[in-house]
Fold this sequence. Notes:
Structural class: mainly alpha
Number of strands: 0
Radius of gyration: 26 Å
Helix content: over 70%
Mean pLDDT: 89
Number of helices: 3
Amino acid sequence: SIFSMISQDKNNENPNITIAREISQKFEFYFIALVFTVLALSIQTSSFTKIYFQYLFEIFAWCCFLISGLAGLSRLEWLPIAYRHHGSQDIEKNNLSAINEGIHGRPILDSTGGEWTDEQLQKSKRELEEQIAKRNKKIETLERTSIFKYKIHKWSFVIGLISLIVSRTIINLRTVFQI
Length: 179
């Protein structure tokens, strides 16, 4: 799972995982900043010729950069939600583990200090298992969506760069060959 690294206790986390997570987070912010910087610079330094295709490549590049940046921002907007779901899932799994221990003989006390009955334990176990299953579906959906948005983010940027290079090459070829 691409989000589950954050849900572990940071004191017990492997230092390599911590470093990987930090680098990944920095890269995500850097990449979005790069996309919007290239978009702004390409617009500010644009130059149009009488060649129709050059216009198309230039404007297409801008559109690709904009789509890339917006997809990246959308992905970043939803990452905290996915992390919250993972954190809640960890809590639910811990609670389920405690209830399972109660089912196997460990006394579980309620808020008044009384011991839970087997019926209460079984009911809580069913509810937690249902909640965990629902949360797993939400997490899977969030992960699929995040991966899809990242692909749009990355490939729109690459296509935008290629289109911008073609546009600027047409300008330079026109200058060299006096077209």
